[in-house]
Every structure is written in structure tokens, then in C-alpha cells.
Amino acid sequence: MVLKYEDPVVIGITGASGSSLGYKTVQYLLENDYKVIVTNTSSARLVWKQEMDESFGEILEKWSEYKGFQYFSGNDLSASIASGSFKTLGMAIVPCSMNTIASISQGITGDLVKRAADVSIKEDRPLVIVPRESPLNTIHLENMTKLSKLGIKIIPVEPPFYLKFKTVDEVTDFIVQRTLLALNLIDRLPDYMTYKS
Ligand SMILES: Cc1cc2nc3c(=O)[nH]c(=O)nc-3n(C[C@H](O)[C@H](O)[C@H](O)COP(=O)(O)O)c2cc1C
Predict the structure, then answer these.
(1) Which tens digit of pLDDT belongs to each residue from 71-109?
(2) Helices (H), the chain
(3) Which end of the chain has less Cβ packing within 10 Å, N or C?
């Protein structure tokens, strides 16, 4: 089996609600023959446990069966993606906590998710964040404004009401496709996710 690109896509999973967004993003990429490097914060596992039916460890085992899959623990600051000389197609942080956004906006790189994001910014590679918090306070908004000014794409976890989806699953799929579009990995949304007048 030939993988789509030589370079991987990096997916960081943090401790914001919405573990299924991270799960579905990685699953889509692996099923579509991308190389994928996954890393996570320690809080991501706590939230995953709360929200998902299968443990993070079980999912990692399943993903390991894909040829293009690689995993680094969030503590592993010696991982390839901690270095700018290691080429990637870009990175998405999905879901992205306000804590991780605050760290990235201040250049604080205490774990591999934050360091890989910092590398994406300094190497001018696509970086997409999928924040989830409600309500948003001024600190959150100012941090996101700073990241937006640096060219980071922000995909909020918001339903496209105009598409009249009935399930959370459909909304999740929509946000995953929006994330892939923002990473330039697809050039359009699937037809059923496109507004028609
Ligand atoms: C069940 C659960 C849900 C959470 N949901 C959110 C959330 O939606 N957004 C957020 O910013 N933080 C959320 N948090 C808090 C973060 O996990 C916490 O701020 C943590 O320090 C984030 O660390 P990280 O950025 O290293 O993942 C949640 C925590 C738990 C336990």
C-alpha cells in the first residue's frame, strides 16, 4: 500500500471536551492513507476516559495497525516533531483546550503538543486549532486573536445549522472536514456538507 505523501500530518489531542473530534480526524487520515503522527497532553486522556467508549490505549493499539501511524507521548520532547528539521504537512490540535492555546500564544512549550505547535509556527507550516470552551472570556479571545494574527486557522466547534444535521456525529464529521480543508489536505467539503440555496 502506497501512502499519500512522504511527510506526515501531526495531530495533537488536548484536554478540551470533544475527544471524538480528535478520534475522527485521525481515523479519517489513516483510512485515507496519510502518514499521521499523534501526540496528546496528559489531560487529553482524562477527558477521553470521560467521553469515549474505548480507552485511549485501545484506540492507539488499533491505530498502530495502520502503516502510516506513529505515536509519541506528550512527555517525549525528543520526538521527531519537536524539531523544525523534521518536515511535516502541518498540524491540527483537535480538540484544543484554552490552556494549550494560552501556552502556544505565549511561546511556552512544556509538552510535545505545545512544542510541535511552536515548531509549526516558526517553520511557517499550516497550524489549525479546534478550540472548545463556553463561554469564552477575554483572555481566551485575546489569545486566539494573537494566534489568528500569526495565520493559525481557528475552527470553532459550532454546528452548521443551515445544513439541518440531526446528530452530533454529523456535526463532528463536518468539523473534521473543515479542519482538513483548513490544513489544505482536501480542496472542498463533501457535497452534502455544502450550502445550497
Ligand atoms: C471532562 C473535562 C472536560 C473539559 N473540557 C474543557 C473544554 O471544553 N475546554 C477547555 O479549555 N478545558 C476543558 N477542560 C479543562 C482542561 O482539561 C484543563 O484546563 C487542562 O489543564 C488542559 O490541559 P492541556 O491543555 O495540557 O490539555 C476539561 C476538563 C475535563 C476533566
Answers:
(1) 999 999 999 999 999 999 999 999 999 999 999 999 999
(2) 19-31, 42-51, 56-63, 98-106, 112-122, 138-149, 168-182
(3) C
